[in-house]
Structure formats: C-alpha cells, structure tokens
Amino acid sequence: MKKNSRKEKKRRKNSQSIKQKTALWYTYLYLVIALVAVVVLSISLLKATYKEAYNESSKINSTVTTMLKNGRFEDKNYIVTNIEQIEKKYKQSIISIINTNGDYYLLEKNDDIETYIKDLKNNYLFEVLPRISLLNKGYLVSSRNIKTDNGIYKLLIFYSASPFIERFTTIIPPVTIVLCFGALIILILGRMKLGKTLAPINQMNRTTRKITAENLDLRLDVSGAEYELKELAKTTNEMIDSFQEAYEKQERFVSDVSHELRTPISVISGYGNMLKRWGKKDEEILDESVDSIIFEAENMKNLVNRLLFLAKYDKKKINYNFDKVNLTDSVNLIIKDFTVTHPDITFINNIEGNIYINADEFRIIEVIRIIIDNAIKYSNNNVTLKINLQSKDNNAILSIKDNGMGIKEEDLKNIFDRFYRTDKSRNKETGGMGLGLSIAKSIILDHKGKIRVRTKENVGSEFIITLPLLEE
Questions:
Q1: Is 99 helix (H, G, I), strand (E, B) or coil?
Q2: What would the 3-class secondary structure string for 8-61 be?
Q3: Looking at residue 469, what DSSP letter applies?
Q4: From residue 339, how far is each of 176, 213, 402 by CA, in Å?
Q5: How far apart are CA 289 and CA 271, in angstroms?
Q6: In contact, 443 and 281? CB cutoff 8 Å
Q7: Distance from the CA of 358 to the CA of which of 156, 255, 340, 368 falls in 20 to 30 A?
Q8: Phi/psi at 66 (nearest 5 deg)?
Q9: Which residues contact 402 (CB under 8 A, 6 or more apart)?
Q10: CA distance 182 to 326
Q11: Cα(53)–Cα(90) distance, rounded to whole angstroms?
C-alpha cells in the first residue's frame, strides 16, 4: 500500500509539474510579448518627440548649408557669428559643425556634448542609432552631412530629450503595472485551465492502471476529454479492444488445443490400459485397439504439424520454394485424385489452359485440398463441386463451389480463425480440427493473393482464390 501511495504521489507531482511548467511557459511568452510592446511604445514616443523637432531641424540644416556655401570654415568670425544668430533664432537647439579633419565649432559650453563630439569616431551607437546616442545625457541628436565646394561637413543638432523622458516616465510605469498584473492573471487562469485540461488524462491514467488480464472490459471515458485527448482516448480504447480480442483468441486457442489433444490421448490411454489388462488376449480387441491408437496418433501428428506451421507463420519462418507453376495442371491433378478417392462426387469443371503463377506448388495444392475437403465434409449426399479457373486482370482466379449446407452469417466472419468450427460439437466426422482454413488463408497471403467466400445457408458456399499471374 505504501508503495502504491508513493507512486500516486509521484504521479500527482509530475502532473502538477506539467501544469506548472506549461503555465509558466505561457506567462514567459506573455512577458516577452509585453516587453516587445513596451519597446514599440518607447520607439513610438521617441518618434513623436523627434517629429516635433524635425521641422526646426530642417530649417537649421538649410540655413547652415547656405552659410557654409557662402563662407569658409577657416573664417572663424563668419562661422561664429552665423551660428550665434542661428542658435538665437532656434533657442531650443545646440548646434555643432565638424569638418573632415575633426575640427568643430561649439559655441555653448557643454562638457557632455564636447566629450561626445571628441569621441564620435569611436561611438558605435552613433553609427547605428544616432538619434539616441546621447540619450543618457538628456539629449536627442540629429546628424546630417553637408557637401560644399570647401568639403564635407557634419552638422550635429542637439535637442533636449526632456519631452520624451517626461512622456516615458508618465506612461511606462502604469503600462508596466498593467502588464505585470496581466501576467499574474494569465499564470493563475493558465494553471486553472490546464488543471481542467489535464483532469481527463489523470482519469485515463487511473482507469488504465485498473485494466488487467482479468479486467479487460474497462474502457477510458471519452465524455470529459476534448480535441486531441478525445482522439487519444478513442485510440487507446481501440487498442484495448484489440488486446482483448487477441487475449480471448489466445484463451480460446489454448482451450481448443487442450480439447483436441485430450480426446486422442484419452483414447490411446484407454486402449493401452485395456490391452495391458486383458485385451491383448483377444485378437479382435487387439486389432481394434491398435487401429484406434494408430488413427488417433495420426490425428495428433496432423494437429502438431499444423500447429507448427502456424507457429512458423506467426514468426515469418515459413520456407517456400517459389517456382514457375502451371496452375491448370495442378488443379486438374487434384480433381483426378479426388475422382479416384471419392467416385460418388460430381465435378463440373471450367478450367482455362496454361495459367502460370509464381508459387510453391506443394503449398498451393494443400490449399485447394483443404477447401475441397471442407466442401465434402459440409455437403449432404449427391455432392456436386463446380471448379472454375480463369485469368483476369493479371490474376489467376480459382473458385470452388459446393452444394452443401452453407455457412451461417454469424459464423462467416470467423471461419478463418484458428480452431473455429461451425459445428460446435467438434465432431471429427464433419469438422476436423478447425485449422485448415486458417492455414489456407496464411498460405494465400504469403503468395500475395486473396481468399474470400460467398455463401447462402442450405444452398452452398463458394471459395474464391485470387493469385497474381507470373510476369512474363
């Protein structure tokens, strides 16, 4: 009990772990999406702030371009005077002009901007995102190159980032709180939803643990499952159905083998004891006993041989000697043999000549004999067998039709099962051992053929065998 209790606790822990991990995964995914949303919002705020300064930046650029084209960078008084006038006109901007030698003009004393200009060549952020390359010092940067006859100049315009920072600090904190609260809600609701989703799995697990060889009638409940879980439950139930069917067939197989062996063993044992006690002194009893023992021993031999064949078939160890076979000659030979051994049977034949197949002739003859034997056993007096052989659609089609008792509809689906017999009394005079049709079907399938039956009760049955013709 303690061991089962530990297993149950471990199972619940694993279930909770799946539920917790999945809920956390969804929460992490939500947080990543939230982070992306915050970044997009920040970029939008930055663009809005920069857009306000765009018109002013364009005007400054135009004015500075005109100034540089009309003057010389070396004329300091000219440059300084003009920059002073521009900065007075656009009071919210700080302007710096840099030539190709790295010389610059910066009228306003600002250590942060001056240090920034001096290290501009080593500033990788400026090459990628120049606008925010000085955001940590509270400035947004506009950078443009101006071509003149005197060379190429870089115009840097510095704007205060206060509007952006104020908007950012106003909007982002409440947005962050809302997103975090949303993540918490998703974590809680996710665990609840996953718990509901995983509940059918736990129920399936409990039901599956109860299924044993003595309790194969249990099935998983699919009413509470949804989507893929419902399909999984249905598939599992189908699998259990197949297990139950196989288990029942195995039980029936063992029971049938025991029954088939019990009778000859009892007969042999009975006659042996009788001979030991007094039967050997009576010649008539002695002959009867020996004949019965030989007969039952032959039956046991046939049963064992057929069981060995089926065992080898199950393990794919049947050795076939495939060769070119004239099926027409084989069928005619079988008919001739049965005509000699059963002169009271009427054969009506319609056999096409020279039909060749690639087969093990011994095995194919065995199949035909099994079907004809069954037709004789399950027919009344005046047995008539109609045998038809023809080629059609690259196949050889052999049909054997009798005028016997036919097969009941409830028996039809089981006639190829091992030890299945329509005669429930298991009378050897009419039913044999119930292995013949199973062996016949196995051989036909190994020859890449098909076998089917058409029947009508009290009218007769027709077995139809289809085998591929030999390729030319």
A1: coil
A2: HHHHHHHHHHHHHHHHHHHHHHHHHHHHHHHHHHHHHHHHHHHHHHHHHHHHHH
A3: B
A4: 97, 50, 15
A5: 6
A6: no
A7: 340
A8: -60, -45
A9: 375, 376, 378, 379, 383, 384, 385, 386, 460, 461, 462
A10: 81
A11: 11
Residue with tokens 């005028």: 403
For tokens 């942060």, what's the residue? Answer: 112
Q: In what order do the strands lie in the sheet with 346-351?
A: 346-351, 384-392, 395-401, 460-468, 450-456
| Lookup result for tokens 């037709």 | 375
Which residues make Cβ contacts (< 8 Å) with residue 15, sequence separation at least 6?
198, 201, 202
For 462, the enclosing helix (H) or strand (E) is: strand 460-468
pLDDT band at 439 (very low <50, low <70, confident <90, very high): confident
- The proportion of the chain whose per-residue pLDDT surpasses 90, expressed as a percent, equals 14
| 3-state DSSP of 75-88 | CHHHHHHHHHHHHH
Residues 6 or more apart in contact with residue 382 via CB below 8 angstroms: 346, 403
Q: In the beta sheet, which residues pair with residue 143?
A: 156
CB 73 within 8 A of CB 153: yes
Q: Considering only CA atoms, which of 214, 206, 225, 86 is closest in space to residue 157?
A: 86
Closest CA to 239 of 215, 221, 220: 220
Confidence of residue 272 (pLDDT cuts 50, 70, 90): confident
> Cβ neighbours of residue 301 under 8 Å, at least 6 residues apart?
none
> Is residue 289's pLDDT more than 60?
yes
Write the single-letter amino acid at 1.
Answer: M
425 has pLDDT over 50? no
pLDDT grade for 218, boundaries at 50, 70 and 90: confident
